[in-house]
Batch of 2 targets.
Target 1
Amino acid sequence: MSDRFDTGVAHPARRYNYWLGGKDNFAADRESGDLLAKSYPAARIAARANRGFLKRAVRYLAAEAGIRQFLDIGTGLPTADNTHEVAQRVAPDSRIVYVDNDPMVMVHARALLTSTPAGLTRYLEEDLRNPEKILAQADILDLSRPVGLNLVAVVHFLADQEQAREIVHTLLGALPSGSHLVMSCATTDFLTPELKANWDEALRTGRSDVYPRTRAEVEEFLTGLEVVDPGLVAVSEWRPDPSDTEHPTPVEASIFGVVAGKP
């Protein structure tokens, strides 16, 4: 692991941890986070809004859709209200497989691999680009029964839309009727021309590794699925919780969020 664990290179999971106020990050991650925040000042707000969307979506799947199995790809570093905590609060027998390609997440796997006695969690160190390997190793999940597939703030790290679409469809194709997709993707659709230009420049100069998707591009991932109300919206507008202390605008939370079921 040590030869792959390069603290001098920023990693999305650790940068996200930095934006959320965590301590599991290094100078390279903080520098990358600060550079991106200069181009997109609401980056930290968007990170928190995205985390809130994940929590609400998982709660919906467990409480209303009856999902008891979750495949969470692009897990990131553990923080409050991880997928298994939200799901098992509703259904203690829920099973969760976490997947991330950052070795540091494996270092912290013990924090993720906690579970109710009735449920189960596992962690795989694997890349989203290898969907068949992920499916083959997710052996605590019964793929003949519905699964909640979480692709939250991860697909936008794939530059090529066709590749991303094929990966998502491969994963969904292995899941049975009744399964659900929870997805969020960065977008510039909500941004002012100035902010969009800043984002484009950050990508052009290599300061960003986040490739935003338009509404039409996100909809390509949803082919054949039944989209759950309120549809494809900014993450902050997906069934917002009135008790939340922060209610970002779509410009601030410039990430699309959607939940969709497989008929």
Target 2
Amino acid sequence: MNLPVVTRQRVLGSGSLRMEVSALGFGVMGMSYNRGVHPDRKAMIELLHQAAERGVTLFDTAQVYGPLINEELAGEALHPYRHTVNITTKFGHRIVNGKYIDGELDSTPQNIRRMAEESLRRLRVEAIELFYLHRLDPAVPIEDVAGTVKDLIREGKVRRFGLCEVSARTIRRAHAVQPVTAVQSEYHLMWREQEKEVFPVLQELGIGFVPYSPLNRGFLGGGITEYTRFDAGNDNRATLPRFAPDAIRANLTIVEVLNSFGKTRGLTSAQVALAWMMAKAPWIVPIPGTTKLAHLDENLRAADVTLTPADIQELEAAVSRIRIVGDRYPASLQKQVES
């Protein structure tokens, strides 16, 4: 059987700051953060090699993942492919002596500059392809953040600017200072709030969208049940209301809908979820993550699926009849997400 390869490309952003990438990216986070026991490092490096060799050119990490060790993993694994792939990373959390100060943000210009220099070393690159503000720091005006990244772009240390989990008004304010190439937020069939106010602004300003957790942290792949137990020490799903046993039991209805839809088209529930997302707009590039080669194969095959408008209407109509149970974040994390 032929191995799946991503051949389709998409464009994030516009103008001189546009970024051409594979239609499907790869989220590196779960290889060393928030997804249970850390897999074997050598195996993860080999899996990242497989992704790069099969056409994936967009790889996403962040300073807070680990913290720091996920950037190091991405930098080591993808160094041989540094001329053909793009590694994106994020700044904005307070990290002191390699430790994340829980809940604290720091987007002061001096910290942005310091973190940029450190990320360059960990990622083993000459310039950061896309530097995202990970969470909005209420103590620092977004204009100051955008201005600092603008200076880093002028100096050649960063190539493009991105934002994560921000409102439409913040996108406009930042974009007026330094054009934004992409916005990253959670988005999937169980969480579509970004369609209301953020998507119209992205369309208007020519900004790309990079959905993280496009399979709702693995849930839409169908392998999670109410009996699944998450490692409280290194799996944030243990703290998320939507992953409480009663919520999982109620929400499995959506997986049944995806499976039913996919059976007549030769698709798994995960492939349906990814194909739906890519059909929503040409400027959307999801970044599913995995630690398993079989799931990488499954995800990559979704990049070749084309759903018709009638397919989309049928799927969304079925999903709209389901009431999703549980918030996506506990209050402590939700307060970092701008609405």
